[in-house]
Amino acid sequence: MPPSPAGSQKAIVAVQVVRRTPILYFQAEEILLMVSVAGPKLVSPCLKALEGLQLSNSEVQATAVFEANIALILRFLIDNDLGGGRWIEFEAGAFLVVSETSRSTTAQIELDVHLGHGTKFRALPMDTDAGSFVPPLRTAALELSVDVESQLVTGAACVLTVEGQAQPVARAVWLRALATQQVTEEAADSAVLFLSEDEEVLLQHLGETLAAMDADIILTYDLSETVRRMLGKRGIAKAGSPLARSLCRRLGAEVKLTPKSNEVSGMTGRLGFDLQKQVEKDHRLVDYSLGALSQHFCRIPLPELSAATRAKVLRSRPRAYAQHLLRQAEASANIFHHLAYLYNFVEMARVTGCPLSYLLERGQAIKVQCQLLREARLRGFVLPQRPGTGEDTTYEGATVLEPACGFYRCPIAVLDFASLYPSIMMAHNLCYSTLLPPGREKKPDCPDFTESPPTAGSEHATCFVKAQVRKGLLPSILEHLLAARKAAKAQLAQCDPGEAGATRRKVLHGRQLALKLSANSVYGFTGATNGPLPCLEVAGAVTAYGREMIQATKAKVEQHFTTGLGYAYNAEVVYGDTDSVMVKFGPEGFALDEAIKVSKEASTVCSSIFPAPVRLEFEKVYQPFLLMAKKRYAGMAFASSSSSPELETKGIETVRRDWCDLVRHGLEETLKRLLVSDGSDGCQKAIAHVRDVCNDLRQNKIDFRSLVISKSLGRNEYTAKAPHAEVAEKLKKRDATTAPRLGDRVSYLVLAGAAKAKVYEKAEDPLYALENDLPIDADYYLENQLKQPLVRVFELVCGDVHKAESLLFGGLTSQKVVVSTSKGGMGKFVKPRPKCLSCSADIDHGAVCTLCKEKLPEIKAQALGRVRALAEELSQLRAACARDCALPSGAFPQLPADEPVSDQGQASERCLNEGCPVIFSRARVAKQLGSAREALQRLDVKEA
Amino acid sequence: MAMVLDAQLQQAALFKKVAESMKDLCKEVNFDCSEKGMQVQSMDSSHVALVSLNFREAAFAEFKCDRPVSLGMNVDSLTKILKMTGPSDTLKIRHKGDTDVVNFQCEGSDDRISEFDLKLFQIENEHMEIPEQHYKVVAKLPSSEFQKICRDLKEFGETLHLTGDKDGLKFVVSGDIGSGNVLLKPRETEKPEEKVSLTVHEPVTAAFALRYLVNFSKASPLCGSVTLGFAPDAPLLVQYDLETEDKGHMKFYLAPKIDE
């Protein structure tokens, strides 16, 4: 065994005999040996040595290892009852402040504390004011830009915010450029600008500045990309260098980026926050670009620039470029603030006891494991080292009652179990430590137990001892979490509603959210086969109880609420899933408030048949309600009879991302018309809406924007024949520097192609299609996008599929079709022949045919009106674009003045913003205006 | 109501072949009727190819058209209707003014009469002027041979490189598994349909999408021979007569493939 690194020659510091209870299966306390080693790196050699150990004395045998796989930092926090995000109180004299010269970190204060017997420090309780105070943490939002070809850093921007202060305390921009003018006095509120032509000097200065800012959180849109740009090709910052110090507080540590896994290591003392990754985890959006996030969350427009545009702007408009970088950093800061990430993560760390960085970098399991280890330590249990097998062994999941599909005009009540799985675990004392070993329940000396409901395919019963015999650890943890949540919510209700209580409200909201999430993830921890401690017996028992309860609820509701027992109607459960049932208490015409009254009664009646704390609650009433299939429904939800209803959908294409906006939006609008809350029949209106959309599509009236489909590019998909992969391939051929990368969402349109062409052959980049005037495949959008989702909705409303199809799409063929002419393909080789502007008949010259000549004044007036309306629409769209997509020049007098922005858009409609919300409308209107003006010219009418 | 169009074909089969040859290219087309006959001009849906049909009045046994009218039809529906006709049936095509249907009536030798009213479309499209092309290479070859070459080569790649020079007409394709070519030399035969003739003003090589050529060649039943015309940076012409020259012709144009 290697000698201990601490200088002492002893690797094994101590071996103690301890009494502990292994957590898995209900079993008695055992005598274990606790081996203490001199350093964390000695754990694994020590384990290896123990494995091969053959003791001649057969009384001692190393048969099982407990808790040897716990990271040092967790071990330390747990053993000393500390946790992430917590305040620690040191008694006077219990610490030494490390002098400036012998420090090992750049932290503001560095303490030496003696660990061991009689340590004089403790974590402050969270429910006190002092314990839940959020310190003035410093968040540096950082944005770096590189030149895609040379991979050299061209600029950077940083916005430093301090918790508790509304305005950023510092804003700085770095740019690889030469100063043309020396400025001695800077305006007080403008950002600091640093210029150098040398990348190394620039980065050095950036590092020094960041180190001086001393941020607790380094906030970036894309952490690994930003760090890669900072560290350059070598991917490493030497210990103590300015760049290392800017990312890390430990003096002796280097910061590295592992090229393959893209992992940043060595950011000790600072938290690297990856905004994009986190938002992708928490929100389902169509577009995750920084510009889209800024617009979505903060309603602040921010243009997205392609690499080519960036290079051009840097050349011709350096002041605008600097300002844009700053805006990007500001956007990250705003989004971070808007989503209350600081509070939510600090609270999650406080609730689960995990270090903050674990929450960002690791999954759900560590949170539960951390709490379990704490509870185990308190009660003298130990966790076995049972790494997840990763096998495909599964257990039966939740139950879904067969839906009675249909379109319900009567109220449908939704009753759900509050925190179903946590309540089940508490009510039946389900835990690792209460699970009886298989067969034990048959032995005469077995303690009092309950047997969980049988599950299909299980050979033996799953039994748990009752709480009087031994209270499970998981139920204790859950009880604590739910009680704490109740307390947090009560505190939240008492908070000052004004500005004064704003921070406290955010803290408490974050806490109750963290508590809820933590409670809900306990069940998943027991069922995760690749987790640290899977126990499918527990997870299986939880779902078995859940299934039994849904069935019992259905039975109870349908037995109790009958005409036989004095109710007006027989109740019917139309659907049930996991933790909720949907009940029809009366036919069409049954009043909403009656339904709510009966539902509340039902929740009390049903709750009484289940053990505490299981509780069935009234959630809402849907009216009308469309039940399409398992996990697919939509309805107008009323929380009470007086509240205004809201349209809710589940599993329907409106919330799925692999459909174009036309479907998402069209379906939503259709459902809105169908599911009217005032009791009228929305069916006709909904059908009329669908037919309008279909006709617009066939007549080329739909904006490209709503036809864009996007899908994220997965591994190896460049070679697969999928539409988005084909488009990515095309983009790569056109410009490899701006082509989508792995994980990027690729947008495409389906264009008209040869007969029987595959969709992937017809897919094209939307902007390319727009620029080249390529026609879309209306039939594809009708048949493959609109049709299925709509027919699924209307087959229930109309009775059957055929009826729905004919009502929605039948007879559409007798409508008008507009065939546009494009400039590509054959369009280059042909000329359109002149046509009469009024009746479209072929003519040789002039504007109208002989038959229409008498209507000429009328035709002229119409043409003029059309041009004016289109010109007005176009100027409004351009104004919107100029407002939201412009790159204003920043106040940076040191830089050469920006070239004036040319009056763009006269020749062709372009926008430098890749996420421009109106470019498709603009291009379409401009095209229409062009042909309208041409008509005006042929009529010899002046526009003005 | 006055009959605007009243036309009769001795053999329904000709109209059926015309419809079949457009089916895979166009969804809806306007049949522009005038006293000269029926004309169709339409881009295919991807705007890469152009179909131009001239169905002369001479092809019909009777043809009466009082005033010019455009009948917009779905080609797929049209082929379904024409499937009802037997090879030697006669076909009447009629349209009354101010109605939105066109009536097809076919009569067999066995005195069975079938009739169908097809709903019309209102298609708004541009009428195209095709500038006179000066083809550097003009070739005439058996239509079945052209069809076979296109079908065979399509198995190997997407793009056909077509060369016309003093050696003959060369079809070249290359793909994932390799590359190959077919060379046709001018030949004289007894049967005029099997003749291959080639006029080269100047050697040309141009690239075209095979997929469309395969679709064009589905017009083979129309005529025993096919005429190809091409020049650099110009569309390819693929022309079939409607059985004989005087009845009219079906012309297909295909934009050359330009590498992105």
TrEMBL record, chain A:
Record's keyword annotation contains ATP-binding: no
Keywords: DNA replication, DNA-binding, DNA-directed DNA polymerase, Nucleotidyltransferase, Transferase
EC code: 2.7.7.7
InterPro entries from the UniProt entry: DNA-dir_DNA_pol_B, DNA-dir_DNA_pol_B_CS, DNA-dir_DNA_pol_B_exonuc, DNA-dir_DNA_pol_B_multi_dom, DNA/RNA_pol_sf, DNA_pol_B_thumb, DNA_pol_palm_dom_sf, DNA_pol_type-B
Catalytic activity line of the entry: DNA(n) + a 2'-deoxyribonucleoside 5'-triphosphate = DNA(n+1) + diphosphate
GO MF entries: 3'-5'-DNA exonuclease activity; DNA binding; DNA-directed DNA polymerase activity; nucleotide binding
A biological process from GO: base-excision repair, gap-filling
Domain DNA-directed DNA polymerase family B multifunctional: 355-795
GO CC terms: delta DNA polymerase complex
Gene3D superfamilies xref list: DNA polymerase family B, C-terminal domain (1.10.132.60), DNA Polymerase, chain B, domain 1 (3.30.342.10), Helix hairpin bin (1.10.287.690), Palm domain of DNA polymerase (3.90.1600.10), Ribonuclease H-like superfamily/Ribonuclease H (3.30.420.10)
Annotated ranges, domain DNA-directed DNA polymerase family B exonuclease: 65-291
Class of the enzyme per the UniProt entry, highest EC level: transferase
Keyword Transferase listed: yes
Pfam name, any one: DNA_pol_B_exo1
Family per similarity comment: Belongs to the DNA polymerase type-B family.
NCBIfam families, A to Z: pol2
Name under which the protein is recorded: DNA polymerase
Lineage: Eukaryota, Sar, Alveolata, Dinophyceae, Suessiales
Automatic annotation (TrEMBL), chain B:
Keywords, alphabetical: DNA replication, DNA-binding, Nucleus
Proliferating cell nuclear antigen PCNA N-terminal domain location: 5-125
A GO cellular component annotation in the UniProt record: PCNA complex
InterPro entries (UniProt xref): DNA_clamp_sf (IPR046938), Pr_cel_nuc_antig (IPR000730), Pr_cel_nuc_antig_C (IPR022649), Pr_cel_nuc_antig_CS (IPR022659), Pr_cel_nuc_antig_N (IPR022648)
Localisation per UniProt entry: Nucleus
Keyword DNA-binding in record: yes
GO molecular function ontology, one term from the record: DNA binding
CDD domains: PCNA
Domain of life: Eukaryota
One Pfam short name: PCNA_C
GO BP annotation list: leading strand elongation; mismatch repair; regulation of DNA replication; translesion synthesis
Proliferating cell nuclear antigen PCNA C-terminal domain mapped to chain residues: 130-257
Broad class of the protein's primary localization: nucleus
Family the UniProt entry places it in: Belongs to the PCNA family.
Free-text function comment from the UniProt entry: This protein is an auxiliary protein of DNA polymerase delta and is involved in the control of eukaryotic DNA replication by increasing the polymerase's processivity during elongation of the leading strand.
PANTHER family, alphabetized: PROLIFERATING CELL NUCLEAR ANTIGEN
Record-given protein name: DNA sliding clamp PCNA
